[in-house]
Amino acid sequence: MKEAGPMQGLETARAGRSVSTQTGSMTGQIPRLSKVNLFTLLSLWMERFPVRETPSQKSQVKRTGLVVVKNMKIVGLHCSSEDLHAGQIALVKHGSRLKNCDLYFSRKPCSACLKMIVNAGVNRISYWPADPEISLLTEASSSEDAKLDAKAAERLKSNSRAHVCVLLQPLVCCMVQFVEETSYKCDFIQKITKALPDANIDFYSECKQERIKEYEMSFLVPNEEMHKQILMTTGLENLCENPYFSNLRQNMKDLVLLLATVASSVPNFKHFGFYCSSPGQINDIHNQSLPQDIARHCMVQARLLAYRTEDHKTGVGAVIWAEGKSRNCDGTGALYFIGCGYNAFPVGSEYADFPHMDDKQKDREIRKFRYIIHAEQNALTFRCQEIKPEERSMIFVTKCPCDECVPLIKGAGIKQIYAGDVDVGKKKADISYMRFGELEGVSKFTWQLTPSGVYDLKQNEPERRENGLLGPVALENERHPNKKLCLGNR
């Protein structure tokens, strides 16, 4: 299916309004991520899922993230592995269930992947318009193969029923500013700030600047002429003319900035991480914690989901993962996706039908708490796989689960909860957070200083270096130990 005009595939629908995944209605007071941009950001973020193998620096095949969506609900989060591309993993994992799905790639898939997913009957294939999966930015000796693959992919696109396109929407007004403010005020950053009141640097800003540079290098093409050449080679020559090209570049930069800002809100900072306060709870394998880099990565997924909230006061995101008995073909290792959600009003309801006043309002009859569906409840409702009691399952929530959700999480058989704990033991008008602290039978990993109070950075560096987890700032700290810098989320 060929693009009909210069803006085909680059969706700009209603920059100031965002249609709700949950109800199809609008919010009027806070900016929200559109569905398209949420799926796009999650695909970019999945590309950065922490790797356990050392990737080949000279490989022509770029690591790729993938989000599988059916009926506007996420049914798969994947990333390419050492052996398989993201599109191939989608085929292995979903098979014929890909029919009528929408796929969001962090790079344009190669012809080998494209022919299989088109054959599966997908509805739409969206991709990030930078360097494709078979890189066009590698050595000249291999560029001919990349060009041939790009031509084959374009031919497959032109002769398929699936709509293969670029879907990027401009961020709504003040979205970047809103994400900046809420990221800095979130539980994870504020807990560090309170624990280190004498810090003489703004660690969050330094962390964010490092992430921006890192992600721009990964997801953007710095040279405009080179970017135009890639667009023309991949069949997007109609986006090479201004104002389309400049708008495209700006939209991409804005989304990368937003991703870096959210990723920095759960930083890899000194002795902080997700730890269990009761060591006795982690004796059996089901209750052992995930590696910190993976836990932080999953929490950032939840943080991104929170920006689809329909709650005017507090956005909450939740994502559920489980760990199989052995490593699978996915780049996520043994982990596989169960479901995700954010707090919103019931499906099909008009936003104005329900109250949305916060707990400062005195009239209890017109408060929102009796009507809004919590993020954990939506994640359980729209899960794409069942939770197996014999496997380790975990839910990541951007804030402490309330008394309404704690028994649901335990009843669903989830083995672990990763969350902030700022509200533990508190009652806030109609919402109580008393049960979380008393919960038994489920391991709770909250954002805190390591319980031992000691973190030997040098002892952990070899493993981090082996896994490719030391970034530029970490290496700078290694060279200059007296210079105070932060370690950002990888």
Q: What can be said about this structure in brief?
A:
This is Cytidine and dCMP deaminase domain-containing protein 1. This protein has 490 residues and is of the alpha/beta class.
Write structural notes for this entry.
This is Cytidine and dCMP deaminase domain-containing protein 1. It comes from Echinops telfairi. With 490 residues, the protein is of the alpha/beta class. The protein has 15 helices and 13 strands. The strands form 3 sheets. Strands 6-13-10-9-7-8 form a 6-stranded mixed sheet, sandwiched between helices. A 5-stranded mixed sheet has the order 2-1-3-4-5, sandwiched between helices. β1 (65-70) and β2 form a beta hairpin. α1 (35-47) runs antiparallel to α10 and α2 packs parallel to α3 (111-119). It is globular and about 60 Å long. The model is unreliable at 1-21, 23-28 and 454-490 (pLDDT under 50).
